[in-house]
Write a structure and sequence with these properties.
Number of domains of chain A: 2
Helix content of chain A: 40-55%
CATH topology of the largest domain in chain A: Rossmann fold
Shape of chain A: globular
CATH architecture of the largest domain in chain A: 3-Layer(aba) Sandwich
Number of helices of chain A: 12
Structural class of chain A: alpha/beta
Order of helices and strands of chain A: HEHEHEHEHEHHEHHEHEHEHE
Strand content of chain A: 15-25%
Oligomer: homodimer
């Protein structure tokens, strides 16, 4: 018989609903886990906000998840991973905290032959140099080339993921990776997996491995729960909390989660 | 000698810094007025939020402006104009409140020969049908055709206002106005004046008058102050408050205001 801690849910949070791509990857990797997702839809996007504000919001959400008795916290938001990871770890005591930046980086540097890594993300993620620092903490001789792609989030939310505007935009952002010799490209934003099929054709001919941080953190969560002997064998519930129910919410959520989203609860944090 | 009320500032607010296009138009039209601008940069964008949330935020800002002794409030945000105008009027007592939707509409319907009017805006503005209702309140027989253009705000903020992506995007949004016979096109979002030079070439050949709601509300404010004998002859200060100082803030603010922005103060509302 499993004890109560195994049956506790995994907490996942993001600035909005983009982190549902992480929830989707976790559901696929760990179908017997209960999941509590929090999307701060009233205050999205975090990417344009100051670090102080992002930290304050992230700690409110962490407390919300801890009150719901989570056994693990997954930071699905790249901006929060870059700005507030240490504060969240501190606030969470002995509850393990994983974040998309560490997970994506770990995946990218796992092959020591990769000497040249590209990273795309929001302006905040790129300015924070969080992926660069994380990669260099592992090996300071690896070359990292970053590119901010601010328009990809609104394009994903408009559902324009492979039309002419999306292709042109991706060219404007990614063309400078051509001939740069990158071996891997980290998708450093939860919205970017939606462009996973189109990006290789933009970098045409280049043999670039695409690293999806949603898949990476799901794998890392599975390993961690196995190591700690905290796997659940009898769960599988998905509970979703948001701070506001924006327009087109269900349509968007479905696009990111890959299935219909039921039983969403709107809560106010303080 | 002017009395104290004449010397009081005009309050202008928006969900973010897009409303600085309105501030710019007001400064041009009324160079001797003191202006207090509030941009809710910590909580932008309003367009994806629920009406209840938008109303609550708008009332907080209204109270902030009233505490600063404004003699008039200009709602520069289309989303707020659509969702919270009545609440703001009620909260403001005898202080006149003007909004971009009423001003833009008034401008559009001022010529009775215009029987066919186009409106572009954010998803929230279009879904609220606020411009349609305002035009039909004046004359229910006028034909109004709306189009939501969610990508124009991020394009303006990226500074992509006339490159290939901007042109393609504008074509996707505006091509259906061709052959529709519209005589005027209302730019129903504070960011859209940045595309004012490109839009006519998208609607090529059509003799469409572009109605900029920023110019419209500035003209309405001038008329109102003249009528109420509340003009200031000795001011000209511009004071800017924001709820957060986002990345690239000064670059963006300058693009919208058309000049450098000095002395910005960050304040927390409650």
């Amino acid at each position: 018989m499993q004890d109560l801690k195994n049956k506790a849910p995994i907490g996942i949070f993001d600035s909005g609903i983009g982190g549902l791509t992480v929830a989707k990857a976790v559901i696929d990797a760990l179908p017997n886990e209960d999941i509590i997702y929090f999307g701060d839809t009233a205050r999205v996007p975090y990417g344009i906000k100051s670090e102080e504000t992002v930290r304050a919001y992230a700690l409110q959400i962490t407390n919300f998840l801890l009150k719901h008795g989570v056994k693990m916290i997954l930071i699905a938001c790249n901006t929060v991973s870059a700005s507030a990871k240490e504060e969240i770890i501190q606030a969470s005591g002995d509850i393990p905290v994983l974040d998309v930046i560490t997970a994506g980086t770990h995946n990218a540097v796992s092959d020591p032959n990769r000497r040249n890594i590209g990273v795309i993300g929001t302006l905040a993620t790129v300015n924070s140099k969080a992926y660069v620092k994380a990669i260099h903490a592992h090996d300071p001789t690896v070359t990292v080339k970053q590119q901010a792609c601010p328009l990809l989030v609104p394009l994903a939310e408009e559902g324009w993921i492979d039309n002419e505007v999306a292709i042109q935009t991706l060219h404007l952002y990614l063309d400078e990776f051509k001939d740069s010799g990158i071996q891997s490209l980290i998708l450093g934003c939860t919205h970017y997996p939606l462009f996973k099929d189109v990006i290789p054709q933009i970098l045409n001919g280049e043999n670039v491995e695409i690293i999806d941080s949603a898949d990476s953190i799901a794998m890392a969560a599975k390993e961690k729960l196995e190591t700690l002997d905290l796997l659940n064998t009898s769960g599988g519930q998905f509970q979703c909390f948001v701070s506001d129910r924006p327009q087109r919410f269900h349509e968007l959520a479905e696009r990111f989660l890959g299935k219909e989203l039921n039983g969403v609860e709107v809560v106010t944090l303080d």
